[in-house]
Write a structure and sequence with these properties.
Elements: E1 4-11, E2 15-17, E3 35-36, E4 44-45, H1 47-59, E5 60-66, H2 67-72, E6 86-90, E7 105-108, H3 111-122, E8 126-130, H4 133-140, E9 146-152, E10 160-161, E11 177-181, E12 184-190
Parallel strand pairs: 1-8, 1-9, 5-6, 5-8, 6-7
Antiparallel strand pairs: 2-10, 3-4, 9-12, 11-12
Length: 193
């Protein structure tokens, strides 16, 4: 069974977007270096960030997100981001009208069904769960194996929380990755069970 990773860039005070769903400077680290992170050359990071991020991106087979993120990104125009093979969208609504049913997007009702579908599709690759409400629900369901955060030196004060509306305590192991890049601190924690 593939590893399930909750991931996102996050402010020091725990937000993945402001109250208007804007990430502000949370992705500035993706243009703060001189090492191209992908073939487009649009993303340039420090060597440390490249060495940490590129292998992670290459290992992802499926991303799980909520319908809100899907709608905000216009479904990435039917092409999963960053070379990912499939996207599983947690939603109670049907796929958008006119959506290409052959696009590698899967619309499911509920986080348990989303993780099960994602693991089928991922094979031996990682299942990534977007931080936020859906990520918090997957964590609360006990289905997250590790948490990865790209902590950016900004304080939002309010907005969309990294762990969504998770209200119970969840213990994480000590971080097994702590790396400083340009304008970012990369952290990885295993979830204690």
């Amino acid at each position: 069974m593939s590893t399930v990773v909750m991931y996102g860039s996050v402010s020091v005070d725990g937000f993945i977007a402001d109250e208007h769903d804007q990430p502000g400077p949370l992705f500035d680290w993706l243009s703060s270096g001189d090492v191209p992170l992908d073939e487009s050359g649009a993303l340039t990071v420090s060597q440390t960030s490249y060495d940490h991020t590129r292998p992670y991106w290459d290992a992802i087979g499926v991303t799980i997100c909520g319908r809100h993120v899907f709608d905000l990104t216009d479904g990435w125009d039917g092409k999963p981001p960053s070379g990912i093979d499939h996207v599983v969208v947690v939603t109670h609504r049907p796929m958008p009208e006119g959506w290409d049913p052959d696009a590698p997007f899967h619309f499911v009702d509920g986080v348990e069904a989303a993780v099960a579908r994602a693991q089928e599709l991922a094979g031996n690759r990682l299942v990534e769960v977007a931080a936020g409400d859906v990520g918090g629900q997957v964590l609360a369901a006990g289905l997250v194996d590790e948490v990865r955060m790209d902590v950016v030196p900004v304080v939002f004060g309010s907005g969309k929380r990294f762990f969504g509306s998770a209200h119970a305590q969840h213990l994480l192991a000590d971080p097994d990755v702590v790396l400083q890049g340009n304008r970012v601190l990369h952290l990885r924690y295993r979830v204690r069970r």
